[in-house]
Inverse folding.
């Protein structure tokens, strides 16, 4: 009789030990999964930061100088266009003055 009771007791203890063992394994797996998810999150966050840094470096090293050069060229062209327009305007004013003077000379000669 004792053997049967001891066997039942032993079986219950073994079931309880297995239950605790599986419970611990589940907890360890949950901890590992949480750590894994946190590592993925950190990896993707780090990757995103590295990508942003690379883009910023590209802007600073490549695009900014190109934009500055483009702005310099645009300013140079604008200045050239402005100078050309001013020259054309001065030429037109000179031409009109000369024409007016010729008209005045012709009027003087006709009056005399």
């Amino acid at each position: 009789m004792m053997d049967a009771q001891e066997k039942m007791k032993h079986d219950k203890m073994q079931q309880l030990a297995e239950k605790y063992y599986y419970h611990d394994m589940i907890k360890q797996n949950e901890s590992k999964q949480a750590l894994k998810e946190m590592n993925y999150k950190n990896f993707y966050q780090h990757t995103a930061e590295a990508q942003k840094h690379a883009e910023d470096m590209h802007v600073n090293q490549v695009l900014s100088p190109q934009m500055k050069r483009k702005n310099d060229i645009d300013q140079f062209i604008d200045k050239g266009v402005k100078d050309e327009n001013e020259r054309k305007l001065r030429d037109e004013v000179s031409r009109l003055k000369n024409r007016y003077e010729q008209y005045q000379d012709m009027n003087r000669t006709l009056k005399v």
Observations:
- The CA atoms of residues 6 and 12 lie 10 Å apart.
